[in-house]
Amino acid sequence: PFVTERWSGGMLTNFATTRKSVRKMTSIDKMKTDGTWDTLSKRERLFKTRQREKLEKNFGSIADMTRQPAAIFIVDILKEHIALKEAKRLNIPVFAMVDTNSNPKTVDFPIPANDDATKSISVVLEKITSAVKEGLEERKNAKKDAPKKEAKAEVKEEVKAEVKTEAKAEAPTKEEAPKAAEAKTEASQEEE
Asked: What pLDDT digit, counting tens, does each position of 1-28 carry?
């Protein structure tokens, strides 16, 4: 998920309303596919089309985002100060490109870079996106390996359970325990 247009106030702090707007956009798309679009008048279709374009411009890039992000990356913290304030309010870690004209103490993980030059932005974004892709791949592989690890853990638990049952089978019962203790003491007395 990303935002290239102006950050809409409350995009994170009022996340439920943001999700409603995204749902409204998808419902318009659904109207086009299920046939109800043809039943609307020309004026209503024009209104819905304009509404859909406006929603796409503001929320199209976050349509797949079903929950709040675990971290945020901001290019210009002076321009996107609303996003920074919302992230701070929700205790979301912020990674940001920080230029000499902004305060790096307001950001959790500042990246010293020129946030005005497109080449600088593209270099940093390329590194960030490659790191995110690598992390997603690792998480995907870890999920694939998780069933194998769970199966190994289950086998270990079964082996432990078998050992315990065998130990219980070999151990004397409550009635036999006093007799076994007497036999041990008699054996030790004989040895002396």
From this structure: 888 888 888 888 988 888 898 999 999 9
pLDDT of residue 172: 53
Report the Cα 80 to chain-centroid distance in Å: 23
Asked if 3 contacts 10 with a C-beta cutoff of 8 angstroms, the reply is no
Host H or E run for residue 72: strand 72-74
Residue 127 — very low, low, confident or very high, per pLDDT cuts 50/70/90? very high
Token pair in block for residue 129: 């996106």
Helix (H) or strand (E) holding 95: strand 94-98
Q: What are phi and psi of 123, to 5 degrees?
A: -65, -45
- 10 Å CB burial of residue 125 (0-12, 13-18, 19+) is middle
Give CA–CA dist 108/158, Å, rounded.
46
Per-residue pLDDT reduced to its tens digit, 132-146: 999 989 988 888 877
Dist. CA 46–CA 44, nearest whole Å? 5
Distance between CA atoms of residues 48 and 21, nearest Å: 13
SS3 breakdown of the chain: % helix, strand, coil, rounded to 5? 65, 5, 30
Report the distance separating Cα 75 and Cα 1, nearest Å: 15
User: CA dist 87 to 36, 68, 101, 108, Å?
Assistant: 40, 10, 21, 10
